[in-house]
Design goal:
Keywords: Coiled coil. By secondary structure, the chain is mainly alpha-helical. The protein has one domain.
Length: 88
């Protein structure tokens, strides 16, 4: 999510609102361009696709948002499973 915030240039809130505050840990990084290796690692894409995404900010943000959503869904499923077996 850190990369998403830096690329998007906003402080992202899960409820869809954006806010930037003085105490925010992640601030806009002017002209932030992530390393293709980091993109490939986070998104699980090839080095070539990572380079293309690096050059297309909108596509990169879409892919990052999709990955964040996938992670959130996985966590929700794990939590639901734990609740169903009485773990939480």
């Amino acid at each position: 999510m850190d990369m998403y915030r830096k690329v998007a240039g906003v402080q992202y809130q899960p409820d869809g609102e954006t806010a930037v505050s003085e105490g925010s840990e992640v601030q806009k990084v002017p002209d932030f361009v992530p390393d293709p290796k980091e993109i490939a690692k986070i998104l699980g894409v090839s080095a070539e696709e990572a380079q293309v995404l690096r050059d297309d900010k909108d596509a990169l943000l879409r892919k990052l948002r999709q990955r964040i959503d996938e992670i959130n869904e996985e966590e929700d499923e794990e939590e639901a499973m734990m609740e169903s077996v009485g773990g939480v």
